Amino acid sequence: MNTRTWKLAVVPALLMTLAACSSNQASTPAVSPSPQPTAAPVEASAQPTEGPKITPAPTEAAGVTVGESKQYEKIAISDWKDDQTVVVSKQNDKLGPISSGELKGSYPQSLYFLHLDTGEYELITEKANMMLGDAKLSADQLFLLYSEFSLGDPAYNVMDLGSKKTFTIKGDTIAGAMGADWADKDTVVGPAYSGGAYTATTSMKIAPVEGLGGEGLIVVRQIKDKIYYTSNSKDSLQMLDLKTKAKADLDIPGTTSVIPSTDEEQMLILQYKENTQALLLSGTDGKNPRTLVEGAELGAVSWSPDQRLITYSVTIEEKGTTNNTLYVYDLSSDKSVQIAESNGTMTTSWSPSGKQLAYTERDDSGSSSSIVQLKY
């Protein structure tokens, strides 16, 4: 695999104005350039599951060969420890059903490492009457950030994987965490229920971010020494310099998400534009953002480790049916290749080598995950 890191090319000729999805196209969204469709642990007490379903390898397109796909039912993959180990959330029958609330009768979801070579599940953490999920490892893999809920909004926890000590991100100064993402290997950042943003370190120090107090924030992401955010009163992307405390409006209205690149030199931005949504690529200064894709509704955005490939999904609602298609965008060719189709929502995560892509589908029946082999 080519391990070069792909940087943003600010070349006007590469700017792409892409068509929105048309209502008479049920299975192929109007996304330009048009993607070429393809045919498409170690705990003895962990419950066994059925073996993965294998889908034959489709053909090569857009400089990316999409290979064999394996489906794992009734689990949600959220991260990778290494190329043979993924972090998953799945039902834990041993804890017994949830005893009260809107989830009464359902079984709790616990967190595991799934060892792909053996198919065994290694328990990370469990909690009676709780749904645990959205687990992400710190960059040094010493800590795990995850959510838990049984009734109402989720809470966010940080676990030391060595000692298993865990704390919840909450306190008098922030009330609680509305969201949470790793800012670096030792720090979590997100919007606070009390208003503004917070930081929480792995040493359990929780504090509001100076300069962002009071106002309700929606998007909060940290890249190096800058925090990018939107607020209830202003959906344009703004930036706070943590060193100088200076603020700047990056003039990107309708921002709904910011996804930093691995080297923290670039960022992907999801932006609402009237009846469509756009995926933008920009440097961290927010200048000269380049439109990669437009569609009715976009999601499942993530970077490959070498930053050459970007995943995204396009969702179309038609006649009461949701059609969701997952693609990989190749920055070296500015072309996309189709990976999968689904009737539910999708999330994605890359293996450390970039040779495997995991995607999770969620609908009313639950979650299932698939791992696709990629060559480029």
TrEMBL record:
Matches recorded under InterPro entries: 6-blade_b-propeller_TolB-like (IPR011042)
SUPFAM superfamilies linked to this entry: DPP6 N-terminal domain-like
Signal sequence range: 1-26
Composition bias, Polar residues: 343-354, 366-376
PROSITE patterns: PROKAR_LIPOPROTEIN
Protein name, entry field: TolB protein
Gene3D superfamilies: TolB, C-terminal domain
Domain of life of the organism encoding this protein: Bacteria
Keyword set, alphabetical order: Signal
Region (Disordered): 25-65, 343-376
